[in-house]
Amino acid sequence: MSAVAGDSKRIRVAVVGTGEFGRNHARVYRELEGVELVGVYDKSAERAGAVAQEFQTTSDDIVP
Fold it and tell me: Which of 11, 39, 42, 58 could make an SS bond with 48 (beta carbons 3.0 to 4.6 A apart)?
């Protein structure tokens, strides 16, 4: 990344796929400073919803 220390810009990310690895990616993105987890998507709306709730994000309207 080319961000300068102290830069207030946030990187917005979404996770596609909420299986074991996707869930872990969501957790890590949620913990990183300067990163905003804007949502998760999975072909299983139920699984995406559960992961979204766990990491305080959304699973709605991520993919048009």
Answer: 42
